[in-house]
Amino acid sequence: MRLVNTRNKGTTRRGFVKNVAAGAGGIALANSLGEALTPDQSGLMAAPEETQSTDGTKYGRYFLSDNRQPPKAMDFVSLNSLPPFPEIAGPQTYFRGASALPGATATIGWQVFIAPVCWETPHVHKYDEFLIFLGAELPDLCKSFDAEIDLWMGEEMEKHTITSTTVVFIPKGMQHCPLNFRAIRKPVLFHALYLGPNLDRSERVPDFDLNTFDWGGPVNLKTFGPPKKK
Fold first, then answer.
1. How many domains does the chain have?
2. Which residues have CB under 8 Å from 18's CB, separation 6+?
3. What is the Cβ-side half-sphere exposure of residue 105, based on CA atoms within 13 angstroms?
4. Could you tell me the CATH number of the domain that includes residue 144?
5. 173 Cβ partners below 8 Å, 6+ apart?
6. Confidence band for 228, pLDDT divided at 50, 70 and 90
7. Cβ-contact 180, 190 below 8 angstroms
8. In DSSP terms, which residues pair with 123 in a beta bridge?
């Protein structure tokens, strides 16, 4: 094997050593900066080691199964729960992320909408989100979609109307909603997939009034959760 001499002609031994030292120092500095600027996500990627499996197995803590108990309202641990309003067929199925499985980094819901309803003020999230709209009839979840759903996006409140099976990507920090299931001719299977350990939200428009918002026609407005403080 032939060794290639990387030492430049005209460079003294002292200069060569100086260049090598400077290069090594730069690499070390870059590595240090990289470690400082890159957040350690190891604690988010797996369940904490101290979490014990209730069934006595090593990996049982990574499983969440239906407890076969009657569904309850505002249940953020069980898979089955009562929906917030009757326009969603009950029970609904929802995985609530880290509150249900410690260490989990996503939440996702499975909700079947059977009648028109609208809700949700404009807000943003800390993590990316996907809103998935499907038909609810097997075997074809695409062709069975028969609805009209309005979603407002961005600070411009740009209106989009969904009329076929659709996946909407909402990057973290992007304003979205209200959401109006305006016409439901066949049941709609709706998934909200959130890539954070727990669902968070920050209101983007102070004192936004859903009652005076221009929906473009009559709506079935619903609200849920604790009343806002006056």
1. 1
2. none
3. 11
4. 2.60.120.10
5. 124, 125, 126
6. low
7. no
8. 176, 203
